[in-house]
């Protein structure tokens, strides 16, 4: 539950007590269990604080960008360092007051200091006509701003950092860069925010917005690293790098979906786990695509080249570790979906170096695997365990449609089959709706 | 108040000062003690959203001849010895992987290498100008860039580092010319 939900509940309790809906003891228990955590800023507070800081910071950068020709160099440098000093003092004061500082003040102080840092290095490079590309500037700005996330617990600077490292990584996907100036650095940059990861033993809950930005940043950053690793492979004579990174992206999605979570995070609803949602969506899409012979053939053509890359082995190692952890935590659904990424590996014993790979076997394997997942998700629900029947039914419907589209059957047969699948899907949906109604209407056991 | 966050904050604040100050220190040294080198250049007028208007400075000299035996690859650092010609404009007289024993030299990055030549990437590529002067600067460039005299980049060089100090036309500083034109 978010702070907004807790607040709503606490506002309702007095009325419920008066109406006799809850006893005094039950109300006290609810108050203790659903206490509002004021140390974490609300979304509105972050937005207001960040907006104010952004306006001031952007104004500062624009003034600095004007280039005051009439002033001497020391005077112009003062324009850079005085705002930095003032924002540092502001942040220090916020830090000194500790818990007494309102969350939005902390956010504003951190963001202002980050912007003043950027403005300062921008002005110095303007005064001395320094060359260099904007990603280099961004890189140093991000590194100098990162500690503010730790000490001031600033979500706004964390979001700025996450977006920044993703943008930097995408910009660095360029042939023949040295590894230390490439997206291969992204995992290290992300480690800078380790205390913020949802699986870390951090007492504070991570806001939904930071989780989503973190996941999207990881997707862009890690996928850029995969493309860069493939690009380098072309110089050593390996080809097919497009096919190569398609599989590497899938391994990345599996790593994200399986990212270790602590017990409290595991119990949260799925929408609070964007890495699981987005990772699973890619994996399921990849699985459906792999049911087509042509796609499977391309995947198999790329895989041997991917296996030449250290980046691929890095991903496989991390994936293996995460698979073990997920197994220990009994995350069966995510394990089943993530295993789709490893289907091509099962084809390695059949690999013949000079023969063109045939995608037939892999496409059938993908079809059977996805069908098994779809059926399991439905059966689990009917067996009284936690399943996802609607997702299972959707998956089966998509599979049938994909297979029909790929077949040589006449349009009439395809049309009839589509109508049949549509009716079955709608019927299943209605059935599930009724079952849910019955469940919620049933009296609680005494 | 907890000490650990304060220590981290102190280190961060110091780093935020140290990064620009180290740049200032290095570049002030080059400006004060460096040898003046003149390079003929070409430049249009682009814009940087963070640092304002600038003139993209591109020295005409874009490649150098490789001495026999020098194995150079794209992206490698190389030292270029600069020697002024009779017209005062510098040219690259030698390339080496180690700093030359004497003379004015710049540390550069090698671009594409082909037969006995290598393209070079200069360590400076922009000259910032006031937003008000920028349109006039743009016109000035368009009028003079193809002229016989050409526009000259004045670069201070010290221990391989280079700082673009000014632009000039026929020995006259760029800003003076612009201010006269603006009158």
From TrEMBL, chain A:
Highest taxon of the lineage: Bacteria
Name by which UniProt lists this protein: DUF2157 domain-containing protein
Domain DUF2157: 15-157
The entry's keywords: Membrane, Transmembrane, Transmembrane helix
InterPro entries, per the entry: DUF2157 (IPR018677)
Positions of transmembrane segments: 46-68, 75-95, 110-131, 138-171, 183-200, 212-229, 245-264, 276-294, 306-325, 332-350, 362-380, 387-405, 411-431
Pfam families: DUF2157
Automatic annotation (TrEMBL), chain B:
Keywords for the protein's UniProt record, in alphabetical order: Signal
A Pfam family that the UniProt record links to this protein: GDYXXLXY
Keyword Signal tagged: yes
Signal sequence coordinates: 1-18
Family annotation (InterPro entries): GDYXXLXY
Protein known as: Putative membrane-anchored protein
Provenance organism: Prosthecobacter vanneervenii
